[in-house]
């Protein structure tokens, strides 16, 4: 095949057995559906991009076939979504046509071209009648170099990206080597209508109700009062934070992500002067073998809360680890039922609810291995890494539904020692909630907290006193 000129498009037909099937959306799909309906119609911030390199010598036709097989394998990639008279609906299409755009790499090279193609694909909102996947192939000479997909968040969550990445790589090399299909969203919807699922939902809502009645008002109250928020975006790039989180994780036998949740909870309580704090964490609720490899919008919110006690910081970390596990066990519920519960309890308490603190670990979509074992470090390496901390103002500027504090964990790796350690965290927070301090100050304090306690035993009380002695930078 000759090198395709820029702008060529292949029309790829996909097909499976059976007619279209319409059913209620899953709970995870409803959660994203309501977020997308709340955002402006032109918003594209939730569109997700996946780029998978093709093996050397891969024909363009073979790359297009891999895309077709991927769409046929995962129902969510050929599903349309709508609001029905009794609630949100999903309709799985048995067949259709997917355009695959061809983009020669040229002087920019395949990788940079793929990044630009991804930006182009995600720059337009998905239409209601459009399948939730767009595809392109970056070519290098006559061959396919990179397959690029843009996917609607209604079709997938961050965990799904890692599944799709592995499946597409397998389809580009050895299609028969794919594992059997996992549970599909329609099957999950069937489970959610069952009696066992409803019992699980009732347990989850009872857990949330007890917490919502006990949490300080500052952790749930909306500060906007009908007006704009006073929010600030900041981004921290810190090798030291990665090393510190890895050391805490090793010692406390927790994941580094939970270590960061614990540090965030402690600072939130100390900033607000409250006896406890809470985070709504975004969780890929794949707790059963049948849905470990489910591709779909499957995220739900867990509630992780911790009260302050006079104890060592290590003990606090372990306690938050237990609280996180408890929160994760109570994440199966219909999202609209939870929001109704939040509003009802807010009314009973005389609170204007809608201002939560969120923590979203988005590393699964980037190809990282967030659950890998951390590398061993040292106090000297940690001290040296502090000189490489960078603070910046990200280009992000979008609102977060029901949030006055939203932390995105984008990178957190210490795979081979101090020189390769890296963490990137982006925070959007309302300054009024942070006692007049901005997001940049909070991120610096989070680094200070975890780095300062990684190799030194201290207590929560001592940390509170030390934080009061820190002079906040302008933020």
UniProtKB/TrEMBL annotation:
It comes from the Bacteria. Residues 46-342 form the Condensation domain. InterPro entries: CAT-like_dom_sf, Condensation_dom. One of its GO terms (cellular component) is cytoplasm. GO terms for molecular function: catalytic activity; phosphopantetheine binding. One of its GO terms (biological process) is amino acid activation for nonribosomal peptide biosynthetic process. SUPFAM superfamilies: CoA-dependent acyltransferases. PANTHER family: FATTY ACID SYNTHASE, NONRIBOSOMAL PEPTIDE SYNTHETASE. This is Condensation domain-containing protein.
């Amino acid at each position: 095949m000759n090198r395709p000129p820029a702008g060529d498009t292949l029309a790829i037909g996909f097909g499976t057995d059976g007619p279209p099937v319409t059913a209620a959306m899953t709970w995870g799909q409803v959660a994203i559906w309501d977020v997308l309906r709340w955002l402006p119609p032109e918003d594209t911030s939730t569109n997700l991009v996946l780029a998978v390199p093709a093996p050397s010598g891969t024909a363009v036709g073979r790359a297009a076939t891999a895309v077709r097989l991927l769409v046929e394998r995962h129902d969510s990639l050929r599903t349309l979504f709508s609001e029905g008279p009794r609630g949100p609906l999903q309709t799985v299409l048995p067949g259709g046509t997917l355009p695959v755009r061809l983009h020669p790499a040229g002087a920019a090279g395949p990788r940079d071209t793929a990044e630009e193609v991804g930006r182009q694909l995600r720059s337009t909102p998905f239409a209601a009648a459009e399948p939730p996947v767009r595809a392109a192939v970056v070519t290098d000479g006559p061959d396919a170099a990179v397959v690029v997909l843009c996917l609607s968040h209604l079709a997938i969550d961050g965990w799904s990206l890692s599944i799709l990445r592995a499946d597409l790589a397998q389809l580009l090399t050895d299609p028969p080597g794919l594992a059997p299909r996992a549970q599909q969203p329609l099957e999950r919807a069937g489970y959610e209508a069952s009696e066992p699922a409803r019992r699980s939902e009732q347990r989850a809502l009872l857990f949330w109700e007890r917490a919502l009645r006990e949490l300080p008002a500052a952790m749930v109250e909306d500060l906007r009062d009908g007006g704009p928020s006073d929010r600030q975006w900041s981004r921290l790039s810190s090798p030291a934070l990665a090393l510190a989180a890895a050391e805490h994780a090793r010692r406390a036998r927790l994941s580094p992500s939970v270590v960061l949740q614990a540090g965030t909870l402690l600072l939130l309580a100390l900033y607000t002067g409250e006896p406890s704090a809470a985070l709504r964490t975004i969780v890929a609720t794949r707790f059963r073998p049948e849905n470990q490899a489910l591709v779909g919008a499957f995220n739900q919110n867990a509630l992780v809360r911790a009260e302050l006690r006079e104890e060592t910081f290590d003990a606090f970390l372990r306690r938050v680890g237990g609280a996180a596990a408890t929160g994760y066990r109570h994440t199966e519920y219909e999202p609209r039922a939870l929001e109704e519960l939040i509003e009802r309890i807010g009314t009973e308490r005389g609170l204007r609810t809608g201002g939560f603190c969120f923590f979203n670990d988005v590393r699964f979509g980037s190809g990282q291995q967030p659950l890998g074992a951390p590398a061993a470090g040292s106090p000297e390496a940690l001290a040296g890494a502090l000189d490489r901390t960078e603070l910046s103002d990200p280009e992000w500027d979008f609102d977060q539904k029901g949030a006055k504090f939203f932390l995105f964990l984008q990178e957190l790796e210490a795979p081979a020692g101090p020189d390769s350690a890296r963490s990137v965290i982006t925070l959007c927070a309302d300054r009024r909630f942070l006692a007049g301090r901005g997001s940049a100050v909070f991120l610096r304090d989070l680094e200070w907290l975890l780095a300062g306690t990684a190799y030194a035993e201290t207590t929560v009380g001592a940390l509170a006193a030390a934080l009061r002695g820190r002079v906040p930078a302008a933020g």
